[in-house]
């Protein structure tokens, strides 16, 4: 569409209709295919079709290359995890831009992985040995103290017995002492023992199981270790106890070994000899110092290696992602019968033809290929994808529309109107220029810091706000505008544009209202006169104003939607939709609600006291009765009869003619189809390309009629319900105003009236929290969702089909957005 009006490679911003697309075929020699696809990825203007959909991923030509890229990606992910553990951040940009090849990169990554794995294994082994020695040292200390105290106690007891023997026998001396001593000395009892550490949380169970397993033939002593120790097996810090277990016999020994293994108790050798223990303690201490030095050196080497990797990580990662995406794309291409060329098909914008051809020529030149790539346009009846060129301002609005449904190819795009109508309808419900300024300040912070925030990982909510920062900016600006119209600044009115037009009748202004006031000046020039706020007539006046304003806005937007359906029908050459959809719909809507909007404007202009409810109700119930005092203009009765008749006629006008005319067109199209003249191949392709895609489908009159019946009923009932739905503008605006007034009067002014600094500070804090939490967060979200519903349901259903699919080109710029 309109190539003549375009200048340069890229067209000007045009959001009304999607870009003209074409189905292209590329025939690329195999020797230049990799470079050609790489250049096309840099361009990002072709959406390739999968010509090998019937093949599994393992049956495709470049499955081995993709497997290689997947292995390199796995190694890079391993490096990233190691850098995260070592608190080393990858460099945002590579410090040394060296054009490394993929084959060289694969070798380098393999070497680095092997080296890093070896360093990790050595460090892990050394760390485990170090942790074992730390535990061994604790065992030597704690168990040594126990043995020393027991030996000292035994020595003292032996000296006491010796003294008793020297002093001679007494009456209290047992008769069999000599016999028992001689028996003990001839058959000494050899007790075995184990020492080690057991987790403190298992220590009581451990001791209980030992006692039961050996039937009490065991002696256990435990000493708590003050600080948690690192377990050599799990590598986690655990609170442990040092234990000493004395036993007798091989059976008890085997049982104790199994129990220690089951409870994860680490056993260590221990000598009863004090000299050997001192020697072992010295050796362990020296070994610990040596291991500490070795471990520190290993960690320094590991950190140095990770820093080297971090400098090049982003460059390597992008290169691997590019290679993998290139081979994925090459797998979508079919091999020519000669097995010397690859054939690709895909969608591209019409304006990108020259750029694609230049990229193919450049690939042929760079690879010294003897055969150049072939670019040709195919004609098809397939519906093209939808492509809108957006920028950082319009992209968020386009996402709002796309969330409802992607536009059909070249149908009218609601985004053009949503840029204005969405923030405006939001502001109608959020009208307060004080709150609007708060939103504006918050949004300006996001906009001024967008370069910094764009490269950071934000939370879900902040990420959403940052993506829609320009939507919030427009919402804030329109909120300031509507707030000035409502004359509300945190619910407080100001005489910004002049003095009030009203004054009190008496000096006391007792029971002041507009009825009890006189007009002393010119009408307030812009917005609501501040005298209305706080008067007894405030609520009835603002209710009437906002309710009628909501109806006017709703009917205007619905009329815009119906008018856009005309432009769609005219663009696609659907004359039946113009005559039997657009015209009756515009007549029906305006015969009823357009007329109501006219009555509202006339009543505002004339100051009439007519009851519009009465006029609209009796327009249907008693259309021939006289209007009496509810007449707003001469000939109103006749006009109402004509409008009512047009509304009644427009319903069968929408329902009946279109299905019968479609049936006649179908029969006429297929009449005499048995014999058709032969055409050339190119003409046949062009005819098929311009042919109605539904031309050869089975025509079911009953289905078409039922569809038209549903569409008619939906529009007639929707005209009423949609108009009523716009009253949410009035309801939410009133709720926002009243909440703001309550917070100001019942919190801030009430705290001010106590003449107490503490109460005033508390009142200000409560007022700020309520304003931010309720009005600036909850009310903003509520108004946003209601504005979204008005656009999706009440506006877009008049003209927007939204059954297209988005243009998703093969582009390297999207690789950075992939989740690691």
Write the layout of secondary structure elements.
Blueprint: E1 21-29, H1 30-43, E2 47-48, H2 63-85, H3 102-167, H4 177-186, E3 192-199, H5 203-213, E4 218-224, E5 229-230, E6 237-238, E7 240-247, H6 250-262, E8 266-268, H7 274-331, E9 334-335, E10 341-349, H8 353-366, E11 374-378, H9 394-404, H10 415-429, H11 433-448, H12 450-454, H13 460-467, H14 469-486, E12 502-504, E13 517-519, H15 538-571, H16 575-606, H17 612-621, H18 636-655, H19 657-669, H20 681-690, H21 701-725, H22 728-752, H23 757-795
Antiparallel strand pairs: 1-10, 1-11, 2-10, 3-7, 3-8, 4-7, 5-6, 9-10, 12-13
What report would you give on this structure?
With 820 residues, this protein is an alpha+beta fold. It is 60% helix and 8% strand. The chain has 23 helices and 13 strands. The chain has helices at residues 30-43, 63-85, 102-167, 177-186, 203-213, 250-262, 274-331, 353-366, 394-404, 415-429, 433-448, 450-454, 460-467, 469-486, 538-571, 575-606, 612-621, 636-655, 657-669, 681-690, 701-725, 728-752, 757-795, and strands at 21-29, 47-48, 192-199, 218-224, 229-230, 237-238, 240-247, 266-268, 334-335, 341-349, 374-378, 502-504, 517-519. The strands form 4 sheets. Strands 1, 2, 9, 10 and 11 form a 5-stranded antiparallel beta sheet that branches. A 4-stranded antiparallel beta sheet has the order 4-7-3-8, sandwiched between helices. Strand 9 (334-335) and strand 10 form a beta hairpin. Helix 15 runs antiparallel to helix 21 and helix 16 (575-606) packs antiparallel against helix 18 (636-655). The radius of gyration is 43 Å and the shape is extended. Mean pLDDT is 86; it is low at 1-13, 175-186 and 674-696.
């Amino acid at each position: 569409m309109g190539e003549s009006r375009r200048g340069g490679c890229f067209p000007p911003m045009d959001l009304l209709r999607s870009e003209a697309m074409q189905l292209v075929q590329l025939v690329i020699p195999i020797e230049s295919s990799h470079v050609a696809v790489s250049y096309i990825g840099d361009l990002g203007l072709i959406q390739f079709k999968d010509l090998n959909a019937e093949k599994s991923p393992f049956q495709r030509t470049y499955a081995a290359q993709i497997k290689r890229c997947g292995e390199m990606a796995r190694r890079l992910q391993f490096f990233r995890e190691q850098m995260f553990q070592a608190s080393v951040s990858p460099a945002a940009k590579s410090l040394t831009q060296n054009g490394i090849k993929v084959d060289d990169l694969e070798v380098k990554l393999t070497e680095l992985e092997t080296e890093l794995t070896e360093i990790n294994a050595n460090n892990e082994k050394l760390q485990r040995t170090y942790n074992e020695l730390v535990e061994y040292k604790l065992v030597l200390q704690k168990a040594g103290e126990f043995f020393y105290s027991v030996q000292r106690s035994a020595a003292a007891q032996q000296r006491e017995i010796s003294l008793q023997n020297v002093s001679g026998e007494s009456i209290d001396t047992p008769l069999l002492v000599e016999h028992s001593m001689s028996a003990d000395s001839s058959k000494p009892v050899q007790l075995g023992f184990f020492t080690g550490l057991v987790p403190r949380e298992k220590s009581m169970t451990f001791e209980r199981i030992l006692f039961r397993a050996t039937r009490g033939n065991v002696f256990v002593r435990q000493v708590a270790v003050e600080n948690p120790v690192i377990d050599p097996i799990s590598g986690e810090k655990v609170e442990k106890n040092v234990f000493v277990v004395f036993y007798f016999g091989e059976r008890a020994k085997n049982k104790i070994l199994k129990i220690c293994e089951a409870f994860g108790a680490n056993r260590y050798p221990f000598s009863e000899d004090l000299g050997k223990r001192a020697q072992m303690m010295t050796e362990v201490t020296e070994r610990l110092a040596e291991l500490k030095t070795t471990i520190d050196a290993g960690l320094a080497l590991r950190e140095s290696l990770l820093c080297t990797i971090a400098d090049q990580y982003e460059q390597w990662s992008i290169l691997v992602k590019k290679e993998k995406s290139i081979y994925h794309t090459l797998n979508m291409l079919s091999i020519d019968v000669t097995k010397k060329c690859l054939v690709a098909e895909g969608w591209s914008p019409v304006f990108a033809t020259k750029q694609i051809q230049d990229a193919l020529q450049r690939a042929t030149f760079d690879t010294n290929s003897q055969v150049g790539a072939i670019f040709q346009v195919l004609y098809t009846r397939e519906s093209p994808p939808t492509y809108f060129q957006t920028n950082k301002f319009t992209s968020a609005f386009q996402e709002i529309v796309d969330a409802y449904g992607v536009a059909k190819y070249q149908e009218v795009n609601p985004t053009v109107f949503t840029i204005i109508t969405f923030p405006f309808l939001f502001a109608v419900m959020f009208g307060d220029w004080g709150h609007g300024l708060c939103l504006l300040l918050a949004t300006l912070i996001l906009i001024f810091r967008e370069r910094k925030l764009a490269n950071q990982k934000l939370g879900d909510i902040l990420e959403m706000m940052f993506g829609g920062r320009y939507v919030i900016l427009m919402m804030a600006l329109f909120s300031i505008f509507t707030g000035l119209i409502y004359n509300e600044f945190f619910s407080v009115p100001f005489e910004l544009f002049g003095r009030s037009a009203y004054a009190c009748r008496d000096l006391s202004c007792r029971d002041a209202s507009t009825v009890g006031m006189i007009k002393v000046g010119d009408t307030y020039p812009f917005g609501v006169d501040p005298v209305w706020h706080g008067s007894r007539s405030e609520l009835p006046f603002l209710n009437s104003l906002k309710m009628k304003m909501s109806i006017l806005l709703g009917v205007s937007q619905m009329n815009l939607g119906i008018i856009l359906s005309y432009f769609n029908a005219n663009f696609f050459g659907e004359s039946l939709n113009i005559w039997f959809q657009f015209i009756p719909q515009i007549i029906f809507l305006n015969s009823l609600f357009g007329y109501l909007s006219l009555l509202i404007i006339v009543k505002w202009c004339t100051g009439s006291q007519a009851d519009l409810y009465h006029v609209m109700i009796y327009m249907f119930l008693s259309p021939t009765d006289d209007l009496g005092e509810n007449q707003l203009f001469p000939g109103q009765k006749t006009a109402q009869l004509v409008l009512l008749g047009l509304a009644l006629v427009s319903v069968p006008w929408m329902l009946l003619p279109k299905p019968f005319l479609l049936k006649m067109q179908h029969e006429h199209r297929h009449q005499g189809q048995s014999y058709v003249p032969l055409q050339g191949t190119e003409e046949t392709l062009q005819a098929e390309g311009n042919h109605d895609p539904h031309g050869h489908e089975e025509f079911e009159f009953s289905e078409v009629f039922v569809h038209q019946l549903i569409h008619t009923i939906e529009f007639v009932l929707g005209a009423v319900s949609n108009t009523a739905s716009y009253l949410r503008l009035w309801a939410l605006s009133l709720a926002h105003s009243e909440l703001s007034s309550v917070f100001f009067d019942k919190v801030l002014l009430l705290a001010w009236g106590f003449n107490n600094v503490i109460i005033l500070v508390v009142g200000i804090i409560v007022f700020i929290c309520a304003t931010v939490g309720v009005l600036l967060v909850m009310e903003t979200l509520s108004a946003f969702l209601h504005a979204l519903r008005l656009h999706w349901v009440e506006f877009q259903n008049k003209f927007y089909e939204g059954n297209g699919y988005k243009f998703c080109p093969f582009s390297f710029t999207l690789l950075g957005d992939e989740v690691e």
